[in-house]
Design a protein that fits this description.
The structure is a homodimer of 330-residue chains.
Chain A lengths: L4 H8 L3 H9 L6 H14 L5 H8 L4 E6 L5 H16 L3 E6 L3 H12 L5 E4 L6 H6 L7 E4 L8 E4 L1 H14 L5 E5 L5 H16 L9 E3 L4 H12 L7 E4 L2 H13 L9 E3 L16 E3 L2 H18 L5 E4 L2 E3 L9
Parallel strand pairs in A: 1-2, 1-3, 3-4, 4-5, 5-11, 6-7, 6-8, 8-9
Antiparallel strand pairs in A: 10-12
The structure holds a DNA duplex (30 and 30 nucleotides).
Chain lengths: 330, 330
DNA sequence: ACTGAGACTGTAACCGGTTACACCGCCGGT
DNA sequence: ACCGGCGGTGTAACCGGTTACAGTCTCAGT
């Protein structure tokens, strides 16, 4: 069994209170006593137990992060943003990822209770009330990327970004612009689709429903979607995928089909993940400040933790990044 | 204040023991009582406190992960591997990253104590005894990528991988092969350098000391190293960087200098990070099973946690991945 | 009617810290 | 000589759970 504070106290001939005071510098302790305690603690290899400490102080100095899964650069960027902000405040990160449905989310949530002072939850397709119901009152929670009215969240302006990209492609002369969507259950995907639709309407583009194909944000679904588009009677001249992974899948499909991007078909993605810059042709994309997304979420949570202030709602803007794949030079 | 077990017990007219039994299914409870407890717990929005639970059970069901920093795809891959393995065992991950020196490492270590059942530590340039000294006896620790004799660790065979790559380049006819090293303080970097040197000696290649340039694993240091090599009187015909980031930096430098890769100079990296495949020309690299590295470390830790068995030492093999940048086709 | 085995439930000690409160001794001020 | 204040220390209650142990009740077996 591990060495406890009582062991140190007994060995050094003092009370636990004094040992505690030494380790927290939370009260006056005579220099001689202090040294003796420090020394016997070292000899015994005593390290204070964080769990026990958390229990009494009712603070854990860690923020929990729940992500839908860890695949893709998007999530690693989020994690980096989160970790950076957490560290800057001298807190710690408790990471958990969830793959399947509400039950697992709930399970993850419950194991986090008591272990964290606040929570950042990214769960594009699970309702916020499920989260609330399984958390004690008063635990600050910030949603990531899901715009639930009345709930603290940090989101990105998916709709504006998608509209901007669509308008950009239209500006290059494209009239038949396809959209590879990200799935009906996903809030981000829905917002991007809405932005695309709005821009199509505003610019009076071809609104053929066949131009919208469903994917699921994976590279292979992008590949499949591209194939579906290639079989259309009248091909689109531009394809706008709801994320970069699908765009890269589509790129592969086009290349395999002997088509040149951007000469034969223009291509654009969303997210601007790091690889976007490295593929050939370099991928035109909508930059989302992923890193900042995570950082901002953490700051919102920690503000709520420390000030007790209510967490608020933030929307981060996106930015068009024009590279080669859309045919606009760059 | 949050709702506790006593609140539920009082409200439901039972004792805390019974409530505990309901939530852990750890004893017989009458169906009526059970329902009543569950219901009042729901109404009160009671969620058990993980910290308190950990304290008595002396188990946290989480493994701690300490990484030197979170930058680069290498670390995100490690995290993914770790998280996957942790989840598979229904544990949780407590993540912490450290940037500067031993003090911070120690601080991070100490805050993890009591919060985790085991620890995966990746710290290429900090001595293992520092870690040991600041952890209670009996806490399983597995080192990642650092081969400290007598200490549980999961490492990759850096030396063999580097030697294999160097030999491969030699096999393509190169006699002057440069190496962009990763810094003297880093164990991985040292092992890779050693592998390179061994292969150079074995193949009787040009062992000009000027061919070894120091970098620090960042893209910009690779760029700088490439510039240094370009200024040599007699240029190398191949450059082998100790990681992919530096190789990509070098690629940029060569391109800026008007050199064609691989026609004018062959290039190879180490790690085989995901982007390696996407850069043009696609980067020849030494594949290291990063994902598996993390996963294996977790399994080693958890085996030690559960069986109480002593954690052991594993070395994972690397694999040569020939793509375009070395001029061997692909 | 009596007994023993279970099923069910409660009491209280404990996990390893923190901290309010009390106590002691010593000092300077009046 | 007396008192208030303060540095230094100890005692014990508490944080929110778990669990050993003991008790009660019911019911089948004899």
């Amino acid at each position: 069994m591990a060495v406890t504070m009582r062991d140190v106290a007994r060995q050094a001939g003092v009370s636990v209170a004094t040992v505690s005071r030494v380790f927290n510098e939370s009260g006056p302790v005579g220099e001689r006593t202090r040294q003796r305690i420090l020394q016997t603690a070292g000899a015994l290899r005593y390290v204070p137990n964080g769990t026990a400490r958390s229990l009494t102080t009712n603070t854990t100095e860690t923020v929990g992060v729940l992500l839908p899964n860890l695949y893709g650069e998007f999530y690693s960027e989020v994690i980096r943003g989160v970790e950076g902000a957490v560290r800057a405040r001298r807190y710690h990160t408790l990471l958990s990822s969830v793959h399947d449905g509400p039950e697992e989310l709930v399970a993850a949530l419950r194991t986090l209770v008591g272990r964290v002072d606040g929570l950042v939850v990214m769960s594009p397709d699970i309702a916020a009330d499920v989260i609330e119901a399984n958390l004690p009152e008063g635990l600050p929670v910030v949603l990531l990327g899901a715009a639930v009215p009345g709930h603290a969240a940090v989101t990105i302006d998916n709709e504006a970004g998608a509209a901007e990209m669509t308008a950009h492609l239209a500006g290059l002369g494209h009239r038949r612009i396809a959209h590879v969507a990200g799935g009906a259950g996903n809030a981000d995907a829905q917002a991007r689709l809405a932005g695309y639709r709005r821009a199509v309407a505003e610019a009076g583009l071809d609104a053929d429903p066949a131009l919208v194909v469903d994917g699921d944000f994976t590279e292979s679904s992008g590949w499949a979607a591209a194939h579906a588009l290639l079989e259309l009677g009248e091909r689109p001249t531009a394809v706008f995928a709801a994320n970069d992974s699908m765009a890269i899948g589509a790129l592969r499909a086009f290349r395999e089909a002997g088509l040149d991007v951007p000469a034969d078909v223009a291509l654009a993605g969303f997210d601007d993940i790091p690889v976007a810059e490295y593929v050939t042709p370099a991928l035109t994309s909508v930059h989302v400040p992923i890193h900042e997304l995570g950082a901002r979420a953490v700051e919102t949570v920690l503000d709520a933790v420390l000030d007790g202030s209510d967490a608020r709602f933030t929307t981060l803007p996106t930015r068009l990044v024009v590279r080669e794949s859309c045919g606009a030079g760059g």
